[in-house]
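Q: Anaerobic ribonucleoside triphosphate reductase, please. Structure only.
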Amino acid sequence: MATTETKRNTKNLTRIPTFFIKRDGYKTPFAIYKLELILDQLSLDKQEQPLIGTILKQFEDKTEVTAQDVHRAFIVALNDLGFHDEAVEYISVHKERLAQWNEKTDPTKRLERLQAKDPALVHENANKDSNVFNTQRDLTAGTVGKTLGLRMMPEHIAKAHLRGDIHYHDLDYTPWSPMTNCCLIDFKEMLTNGFKIGNAEVESPHSIQTATAQMAQIIANVASSQYGGCSANRVDELLAPFAQRNYNKHLEDAHEYIDDDIKRQEFAKKRTKKDIYDAMQGLEYEINTLFSSQGQTPFTTLGFGLGTSWIEREIQRSILRIRIQGLGREKRTAIFPKLVFTLKNGLNLRPSDPNYDVKELAVECATKRMYPDILMYDKIKELTGSFKAPMGCRSFLQGWKDEQGNEVNNGRMNLGVVTVNLPRIALQAHGNKKLFWEIFNERMQLCKEALVFKVNRVKQAIPQNAPILYQYGAFGKRLSSEDDVDELFKHRRATVSLGYIGLYEVGTSFYGSDWEQNKEAHAFTLAIVKELKANCDKWSDEYDYHFSVYGTPSESLTDRFCVADREKFGKVPDITAKDYYTNSFHYDVRKHPSPFEKLTFEMAYPKYSSGGFIHYCEYPNLRQNPKALEAVWDWAYDKVGYLGTNTPIDHCYKCGFQGEFKATARGFECPDCGNHDPKSCDCVKRTCGYLGNPLQRPMVHGRHAEIASRAKNMFDGMGELDEK
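A: Structure for Anaerobic ribonucleoside triphosphate reductase:
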């Protein structure tokens, strides 16, 4: 193959056009590398230079050329130079791609695939059971929505999505519907001032049991009115006033039977503690039995840990004790809600802190149920500008104040995500960093236009489309039916996210598969994330919405991008050959780093990826060694903002095995008896941001491969953990 230097040497060629106009009228800078990529695919690398010169000669007097011009020029050049078979192949490929475009945007064709139970469609989401009627209905609607959505958006964006240059997330819902993505529900506003669902006017609750019941109804309705996750921020502090009403009622009742004030208080406190436990248990069961209109349990997160009163402490302890206990008769691990516990120096971090006992319970819970994940209070404030739980699994709002100067987090939302395929840019650059940045900048312009399209589409909603969001308080400020929904989005109140995947593979492409300790490689990959942020900052200034950099939780995208690039570039060792791409900035799952090595490697990236990030560490079974996990939490406190635990918690009810299920060709199974029946075993793996059950929800190949790889590489050097 011709060297990159030869390929990029164009000074002896005729004048190069300035702009290229796509078939939908989109104008972009003319790029010679795209001609070279086509020639590579036609296996004409040894003759590239004369071909490119012959093609460009046809544009000698043009500053702008169209897609049709280039198409004709290719055919003429190939025939003039005697490559008649290649000209026929080029025409054939062009016709094939046009047919593929028509098929991808034809609802009938996609519905036929769904009816045939194409695994790529029915298993796209690891927490959707495609055997359930309402899930099937949602998949059917989503199938139609995807094809129509592709036709709605600018053609060059739709084709970039289908090619795998970018990924336009949640295409089954948007842009066909002007829906929002994820949010922090303003439960305080709703529970304080009341709200309406359907025909019911709901007043402020008078007990914590009613408050949690109302929360479950709010979650179900919010989840059915958007397509992303929803979170209850600082839920212990949120629910404390309603538990106080329980206490006041019990104290009032005690006056009728008990004369001593201290005993009355003890009675009221004991009754209130039971009420709190029952209410939080009810919320856990409610969330896990809910189904939204999307045919799945709502992706819900509870953030807690900062409350200091006895009631707030009791809510924290109840959440953790209930999760440790497990669901149902078999005590299975609850998949939802995701639990996010906050560590704060001076509150619960050290043994001398007043809430340290709650932290100990959180550590125990994580060793047995993987959750809670951990937020480091001071680091989250540093990275995002204010403290708050993530929206759903890892999407973070940035600090924001209203016109009165009040910090606002609850009631804010994300408007959508577009993810760029970073490994593809590296593979197209063939080791040439200058070309890498040229392609990168072009993709950034594409992502910008896709994100702006997302924002403009969401702005077309009217309050009546989602009353729970816009009119009854979930998004904070309540709008009238005549108001513009943009009132809740503009001036950077809402975020819209530029996602990325495969930073590890980019490093591998330029520096080889063992680049983690290479300072130059690390600086290069960090520069990429910095440049993502620089683009987002520029777009934020231009449009006054908060464009944020988001480390994509690529559940099925790890597979989709890799498969597309393997078809395009073949099996590239340690990149496309391993069947998946690595999420965001994460350390390669096939390696064997200690938690400290992994976090040290990853800790620089979230500063520039503050719109969405999380770190995971791998551990063996920690049930007998919770102090090892606590040692990592303590060490990480001032280094990372958001930390998750991956530890084996699988349980076979047939033979009693507890630990790590074996990854096999047919899925995960008990290593002792081979059981893989979801009815008689509990197999729980982290599926990107949330937990998932791969036995009940079969995963796409790439994600399955990543989890299997991770399972084989569990870190077992617990002596090192104890030392540190």
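A: Brief note, in case it's useful. Residues 471 and 479 are 5 Å apart (CA to CA).
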